[in-house]
C-alpha cells in the first residue's frame, strides 16, 4: 500500500498526519510503527485525520492528546483551504471539547483546555515526583534528573502502576539552563520516545512553574532539543482561565510504502 501523508515539523517534534480511510483505519498501529521505524523520516508520532468530520478530527496513534499535532493539523487544514490568517476549529483525541487553532502564516497556536490537576508518583526508592495531569496525558516533572534511559525506566514503571492516562510524559527540566528534554510513552502503541519537543509537556511545565501566580498573564518560550515552544497562560484569583501553545510549523508532503 502506498501511503500519502503530511509530515509536520513543529519544533522538531516530527508528526505524520495520515488521512483516515478504509485502508488506514484498521491498521493504525501497524502504520504508526512502520512510519516511526523509518529513521530517514525521523517521525516521533502519528495521527490519523478525518477532514470531513464536523469539526475535522485528529486521532492520535494511541488515543492520547498531543498539542504539537493539534496545531500542526490546524495549519495543514488552513493550507488546504488557502487560509493565511485566522481561526479554525478542530477536535483531537484526548480532548473533551473542540479546540481553536490560530493561524498566522507559518505560525500555529492552539487554545487548550484549562483543565488540569496536580498529583505525584512514588518511585521504587521512595522518592516522589510531581505530576501535572492534563486531559489525555499526564506529565511527570523530573527536575534536575539526568535525561537518559536508565533514569526514565523506573519512572515509567511507577507511572504505569499509578497513573491512568493513555500517555505519559516525563519532563526532564534543567532549571539552571532553562532547558526541557521531554520523553513520551504511549501505552497502547508501546512506544517510548525522547522527543525533540512536546507541546502538552511545555504547557504542563508552564502550569507547574507558574502554580503560585495568582493573577495576570504569563508567557514562556521553552527551549527544547528541536527548538522553542511558546506558552501563554492567563490566571485570575489563582485559577487558570486560558492557555495556548504556539510556534512555527513546517509541512511537507510525503509518501511511504506499507507492506500489505
Structure description:
It contains 4 helices and 17 strands. The chain has 260 residues and is α+β, with helices and mostly antiparallel strands. The protein is globular and about 50 Å long. The protein has an 11-stranded mixed β-sheet with strand order 14-15-16-7-6-5-4-3-2-1-17, with helices on both faces. The protein has a 6-stranded mixed β-sheet with strand order 8-9-10-11-12-13. Helices cover 19% and strands 46% of the residues. The mean pLDDT is 96.
Q: Which of globular, elongated, flat, extended, rod-shaped describes the shape?
A: globular
Content of β-strand: over 45%
Structural class, judged by helices and strands?
alpha+beta
Taken in chain order, the helices and strands follow as EEHEEHEEEEEEHEEEHEEEE
Question: Main traits of this protein?
Answer:
17 strands; 260 residues; 6-stranded mixed beta sheet; alpha+beta; 4 helices; 11-stranded mixed beta sheet; globular
Give the topology, please.
Elements: E1 2-10, E2 15-19, H1 28-37, E3 45-50, E4 57-60, H2 67-80, E5 85-92, E6 99-104, E7 107-111, E8 117-122, E9 128-134, E10 137-143, H3 149-162, E11 167-174, E12 179-186, E13 191-194, H4 199-209, E14 216-224, E15 227-236, E16 239-246, E17 249-257
Parallel strand pairs: 2-3, 4-5, 10-11
Antiparallel strand pairs: 1-2, 1-17, 3-4, 5-6, 6-7, 7-16, 8-9, 9-10, 11-12, 12-13, 14-15, 15-16
Amino acid at each position: 500500500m502506498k501511503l500519502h501523508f503530511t509530515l509536520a515539523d513543529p519544533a522538531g517534534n516530527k508528526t505524520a498526519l495520515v488521512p483516515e480511510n478504509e485502508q488506514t483505519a484498521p491498521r493504525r498501529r501497524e502504520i504508526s510503527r512502520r512510519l516511526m521505524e523509518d529513521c530517514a523520516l525521523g517521525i516521533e508520532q502519528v495521527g490519523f485525520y478525518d477532514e470531513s468530520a464536523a469539526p475535522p478530527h485528529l486521532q492520535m496513534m494511541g488515543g492520547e492528546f498531543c498539542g504539537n499535532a493539534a496545531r500542526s493539523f490546524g495549519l495543514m487544514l488552513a493550507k488546504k483551504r488557502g487560509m493565511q490568517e485566522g481561526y479554525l476549529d478542530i477536535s483531537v483525541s484526548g480532548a473533551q471539547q473542540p479546540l481553536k487553532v490560530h493561524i498566522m502564516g507559518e505560525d500555529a497556536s492552539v487554545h487548550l483546555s484549562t483543565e488540569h490537576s496536580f498529583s505525584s508518583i512514588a518511585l521504587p526508592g521512595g522518592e516522589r515526583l510531581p505530576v501535572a495531569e492534563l486531559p489525555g496525558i499526564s506529565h511527570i516533572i523530573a527536575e534536575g534528573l539526568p535525561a537518559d534511559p536508565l533514569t526514565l525506566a523506573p519512572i515509567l514503571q511507577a507511572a504505569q502502576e499509578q497513573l491512568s492516562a493513555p500517555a505519559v510524559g516525563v519532563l526532564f527540566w534543567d532549571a539552571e539552563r532553562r532547558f526541557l528534554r521531554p520523553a513520551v510513552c504511549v501505552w497502547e502503541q508501546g512506544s517510548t520516545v525522547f522527543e525533540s519537543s512536546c507541546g502538552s509537556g511545555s504547557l504542563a511545565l508552564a502550569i507547574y512553574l507558574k502554580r503560585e501566580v495568582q493573577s495576570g498573564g504569563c508567557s514562556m518560550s521553552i527551549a527544547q532539543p528541536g527548538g522553542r515552544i511558546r506558552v501563554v497562560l492567563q490566571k485570575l484569583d489563582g485559577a487558570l482561565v486560558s492557555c495556548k501553545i504556539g510556534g512555527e510549523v513546517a509541512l511537507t508532503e510525503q509518501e511511504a510504502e506499507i507492506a500489505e
